[in-house]
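Note to self: the last two entries modelled the partners one at a time, which told us nothing about the interface. This time every component goes in together.
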Amino acid sequence: MTSKFKQFPGTPLSEADFQEGKILFRHDEMKGDFAWDTGIAIGSYLAALKEGFLLGGYCQTCRKTVIPPRTVCEWCFRPMDSYVRLEDTGTVNTFSLCYVTWDVKRIEEPELPAVIEIDGASPLHGIMHKLGEVDPQDIHIGMRVKAVWKPPEERDGAITDILYFKPIQEGES
Amino acid sequence: MSMRKVAVVGAGMTKFVRRAQETAKELTWHATRMALESCEMTLDDIEAVCLGTAPDSFDGVHMKAEYLSDGAGAWGKPFMRSYVGGGTGVFTPIQGWYHVASGLFDAVLVVCEEKMSSYYPHAQAAFLTIFDHTTERPLKPNLLWIFAMEMNRYMHTYGLSKEDIARVAVKNKRNAADHPCALLGDANITVEDILNSEVLAWPVNRLDVSPVTDGAVALVLAAEHVAKRITDKPVWIQGVGWNLDTAYWTNRDLAYPRYVEYAARMAYEMAGIKEPRKEIHIVEPYDPFDYKECHHLEGLLLADRGQAPQLVADGVTLRDGNMPVCPSGGLLGVGNPIAAAGLMKVAELFWQLRGEAGARQVPGQPKRGLAQAWGDLMQVGTVIILGTNP
Amino acid sequence: MSLLERHPQAPNAWLGNLPVTSRYTAGVAGEKFFRALKDEGKILGTYCEHCDITYIPGRIFCERCMAELDEWHDMGTTGEVFTFTLLFENIDGTPVEEPIVVAFIRIADGGLIHQLGEIDLDELSIGMPVEAVLKPEKEREGSILDIQYFRPIPE
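The predicted structure of the combined assembly is written out below.
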């Protein structure tokens, strides 16, 4: 460290300092409720989920099929040419076994998030979702999977209309 | 390019701690004042201030940079905020650089601050907003998912083991034992310690990740004619680069950060560097996770794809190796206050190139260093190259 | 389905919220300021000699010259109304029975934003001298609300 500095500022505290009231502090909470417009493309994506299929978008100039669909192609900046109905099967591109929740609580059974390349979309194009009905130790990159859907009457038009993706044998669909 | 030459002439930083008593404003002031004192300048000499700090939702403070501006000496001055996730620490000095290079200002303060401990009970929950609200948040995702999945893909693509990658955490935490501001320096840590720490989201273990941290760092930038009056060892900004990849992170190759490559190319071209592996003497890539150091070294074209872990295993990246990487101890060792972490790396290069890094000094009189930061959902790459020659 | 039209079955909006819960430390300056308010009922400020300015609430640094400030002064508990407003609605839009008076009370070079109480609206004026009314010591927590309100100083 530059020889001029001997002392560095900053007062570290421990959790105990708060519990024991050694320093003053206060709690606060923000209220932030939102109603996000689903938009044209994502709105169609959600409507398709409600009907039980995955929707992508196709750009003729770039010859790319993307998921989720967009109204404009982000590479050539032209409007996308069409929606494409995609399969609900895919290949695991990557995955994890997660033992903590989003607010850092420990859980026993791991959650199984994965990025799944969807059949029909361009290579390396996929969505994030969860895996299920599988032993965590058996999951591998390249594993073939298929969506498990909620029954039609329970679907809301949300990504959670797919409960999870489960492994399938090659040849199955 | 007819840009003026810009040098870093002073730097200061606070300790990086898990939870600081100081308010965000007070942390900012400590770093700013130290930076000014280090080059014996006063606030009257400063013409503009650039500040980087994380989004308002982290602290629940609206227009947080403006809120912190008093601690950054911005009262009555032209002021600009930037935020590009973790990339901020290298982006804010780039912003400061073009303030001076353009000819608008002769002396600029660059300040980055983060107080993550305000988010209660744990700052990780604040990252929920990084995911798309309609197509991803209903799955109740977790910041660790993205990194764990990227690490998995990287390891799988190149056939790497957790051990190969854990060596980076060991190197950095050991390096950090020599950094007076470090939170997690440990001179005796071993690969077994990393591998035995609890699994958070496989393949990420607790010691593979840098912790939530509070801290602030500040630099003083000056134009050539001013820099030469202030110090006889100015450190020149030779190249800058920044780049953004698609927001659809599931629509690209997770094993290679091409946005880092594009940013690096921009910086290399500006600095006139043709063979980075020979011409860069110290590298400070962004290492919030140990595999990220390898990932980024490859994106910076300083290692062949999939080969960075081999460099670590061979000792090439140790402080006295051929290409020292993270001699500061990096984020894994010093800490990770989101916006300030990258600036800590730039400050490290500043001290290293002047021979003032004390116990962390890289031997052999290094003349050129590169700092890189990365941000958001695998999107932003920012690169800055500093050197002893203008 | 053209890419310019909304899908008729698409949900229009996606609802969600931003969960932000914070725990703020009072800070180094805040520790002194709020403890003085809590334990001694005093309002403290800090003085910068270089700029000849007193900050209220007290801070550990001067924002104009970056000097470290360690001269803490008791600023008293009186001030004058610099500006004020009357609130006729609650934060959720429901009406209030009696208008709430919020003011910026000038104390030396700084001041505090707080409520005014025990006030006759006809007497309310800019420049009127006011004094702080504190909660009983047992009820104080080291918060700005340890001051209940400011009231006009009786003649």
